[in-house]
Amino acid sequence: MSFLYRFAITITHKQPYVDWANSFNDGGPELTVGFADDQRTIYLVPESDQRPSAAELLDEFWEDIFEEEVAAWMQQEEDWPTPRTREMFDNWFAAEVSDHVFDLTPDEPLTHAEVEALGVEVALRRCAWCDLDIDEGAGRFVGFKLPDRDRFAHREGLTLPLAIDDEQVVVGILSPADSDLSRAADDVVFRACTSRCEKALRKAVPKALRKVSN
User: Fold this and answer.
1) Of 19-23, 36-40, 113-117, 167-171, where does the model show the most confidence?
2) pTM of the model
3) What does the alpha-carbon distance between residue 53 and residue 42 come to, in Å, rounded to a whole number?
4) Inter-CA distances, 51 with 48, 95, 98, 107, 149, Å
5) Could you read off the pLDDT of 52-77 as tens digits, one per residue?
6) Smallest Cα–Cα separation from 24: which of 86, 70, 88?
7) Residues sharing a CB contact under 8 Å with residue 118, sequence separation 6 or more, in sequence order
8) For residue 181, what pLDDT band results from cuts at 50, 70 and 90?
């Protein structure tokens, strides 16, 4: 168990938020207050020596929270309510502050960045084809050129999973654009434990790359 030096703001949705969300309804099921209330969001904010009130914390963070909550329902900013005011925020949302936040699994990744980093670590030490662990200094890297690298630019330095068939997914790493690998046309690289797994990757990956690039 690990204590987090954060306050937590739990946000629930009121009827005006539900009405706004349903204004985009095109005949599908309507959002209800009950369902919206189940979809609570928790925001972690810096801890301080004195426990602030919910109003004091919202004075600082309400705009960020408002944007996140409307973006969760509607990605296009032009459809967001304007102008967004603090009074509107209080009418749309209820906030509850918790000042004791504990992580019951501190050994597990906590943030999205940590999950991504763990994925890269696993891809570097396991064979992409047979999933066996590879000893340090063993195995080999297998590189491929992407038909459209710009499409995957947001994954540079991160993992790139590829479906080979309905049962198998291989995971590579997208090389940074300014790296030696990228300059050598190795846009995405995979670890292979043996020449047999390397051959299997070289046979299957190009087809999978063409599929995701279409």
Assistant:
1) 167-171
2) 0.66
3) 16
4) 7, 15, 9, 28, 49
5) 788 889 999 999 999 999 998 888 89
6) 70
7) 109
8) low
Q: Which residues contact 83 (CB under 8 A, 6 or more apart)?
A: none
SS3 for 96-163 is EEECCEEECCCCCCCCHHHHHHHHHHHHHHECCCCCCECCCCCCEEEEECCCCHHHHHHHCCCEEEEE
194 residue type, one letter: T
Alpha-carbon distance 196 to 188, whole Å? Answer: 19
Q: Which residue has the tokens 């999933």?
A: 131
Question: What is the rounded CA–CA span in Å between residue 154 and residue 151?
Answer: 8
Q: Is 146 left (phi over 0), alpha (psi -120 to 50) or beta?
A: beta
Residue found by looking up tokens 């995405």 in the block: 188
> For the chain, what percentages of helix, strand and coil (3-state, to nearest 5) are there?
40, 25, 35
Cα 183 to Cα 203: distance, rounded to the nearest angstrom: 23
pLDDT digits (tens, 9 = 90+) for 103-144: 888 888 778 888 888 999 999 999 999 999 999 889 999 999
Q: Quote the CA–CA distance of 162 and 53 in Å, as a whole number.
A: 48
- pLDDT for the residue 42: 94
The pLDDT of residue 27: 63
Please work out, in degrees rounded to the nearest 5, the angle formed at the alpha carbon of residue 147 by the alpha carbons of 145 and 148: 110
- Please give the pLDDT value at position 32: 80
